[in-house]
Design goal:
The chain has about 350 residues and is mainly α. The chain has three domains: about 80 residues, Endolytic murein transglycosylase (Dna Ligase, domain 1); about 80 residues, no CATH class; about 140 residues, no CATH class. It has 14 helices and six strands. β5 and β6 form a beta hairpin. About 5% of the residues have low confidence.
Length: about 350
């Protein structure tokens, strides 16, 4: 009887051990399956998923399961929670392909501006060139960009009192590298650039402009001319000093860059006819600053306009070696231009400038 009981006990033990082994094996098999999916999902080609603004982790996880992208939503949610992703989900489009892990998908879901396009706006670009850059980047808002350059649409201190002119926000579209979401409107893109300007033009700059007796618009107009007149950061302060000297002496600025803005072509050498085009931007024809900025300057040119170099020069031209030649009188300026084959730019208005300086 004792032997029979012992035999039955051994049999039960074997059954229990067998069941436990099967459970463990099943668990291992299930874990391997879950790990296999979490380390590399399998989809046909590339799947585009549009995540809505108010979805969050739960709805997004269920959607990914319904679309056959992930097989184990519990494992996905667990990884999302333990990985600190739950509060980071971003709306927009993500693209999923075979081999992406759950972590890869979570990284994509929580990337800010993942639908953004990188657009580089160089210093000295005009508004029309910015519109072209947006178009080349494939942004649909480019078509409406110029129409969005209306100061009344935005609320910034520096926009107060901007006068009427063809492109009123020219000068304030701060040059930088932008990550622009594809669904942004033209107004949102302009606001992005105005915010960048706002953060660059500090309170100290406002105070300095006031000390100079200049409006912010006058400072940015001067900075835009300086930006276009020289590509050398080290020369901008002196170029600004030359232009302020001319203004103080009652001379015309005679900036080639202002005429280039009028004709829409950055000709290296202007003709006499070019300098006689009637436009409020043409500083060969009209005294003082142009009616507004002729480009969108960077911070170096803005600083140069605010803190010009003290110089006794009234003229400058670009030498054949790429260096700017500064002159204190008209005769030396003519000689510098002749030696660099720039004499085409000289006309009687230059002599009038020299007379007004005297």
């Amino acid at each position: 009887m004792a032997i029979e009981t012992k035999h039955m006990g051994n049999k039960k033990l074997k059954v229990i051990v067998t069941v436990l082994v099967l459970v463990i094996l099943a668990g291992i098999a299930g874990l391997v399956t879950v790990l296999s999916d979490s380390l590399g999902v399998k989809v046909n080609g590339e799947v585009t998923v549009e995540v809505k603004k108010d979805w969050g982790p739960s709805i997004t996880t269920n959607y990914l399961k319904e679309q056959g992208i992930i097989k184990y939503p519990f494992a996905f949610r667990l990884q999302s929670t333990l990985g600190g992703y739950d509060d980071q989900y971003q709306p927009g489009t993500i693209r999923i392909h075979s081999g992406m892990s759950y972590k890869d998908i979570l990284d994509a879901l929580t990337t800010v501006n993942r639908d953004a396009v990188k657009v580089v706006i160089p210093e000295g670009y005009e508004a029309r060139q910015i519109a072209e850059a947006l178009s080349e980047a494939g942004l649909e808002c480019a078509a409406d960009f110029m129409d969005a350059l209306d100061p009344s649409l935005y609320d910034y201190k520096f926009l107060n009192g901007i006068p009427e002119r063809p492109v009123r926000l020219e000068g304030y579209l701060y040059p930088a590298t932008y990550e622009i979401p594809k669904n942004y409107t033209a107004k949102e893109v302009v606001d992005l650039m105005l915010k960048a300007f706002d953060s660059t033009f500090t309170e100290d700059y406002y105070k300095r402009a006031e000390e100079m007796g200049r409006s912010v618009d006058e400072i940015i107009t001067m900075a835009s001319v300086v930006e276009r007149e020289t590509g050398s950061a080290g020369e901008r302060g002196k170029v600004a000093g030359v232009f302020y000297n001319r203004l103080k002496a009652g001379m015309k600025l005679q900036s080639c860059a202002t005429v280039q803005y009028v004709i829409g072509d950055r000709k290296p050498i202007l003709s006499i006819a070019d300098t006689k085009i009637d436009s409020p931007y043409n500083t060969y024809l009209h005294a003082g600053l142009p009616v507004g900025p002729i480009s969108n300057p960077g911070v170096d040119s803005i600083v140069a306009a605010l803190y010009p170099e003290d110089t006794d020069a009234y003229y400058f031209c670009l030498g054949t070696n790429g260096e700017t030649i500064f002159s204190t009188n008209f005769e030396d300026h003519v000689k510098a231009m002749e030696s660099n084959d720039l004499i085409m730019n000289v006309d009687t208005s230059a002599v009038e400038n020299e007379d007004s300086k005297k």
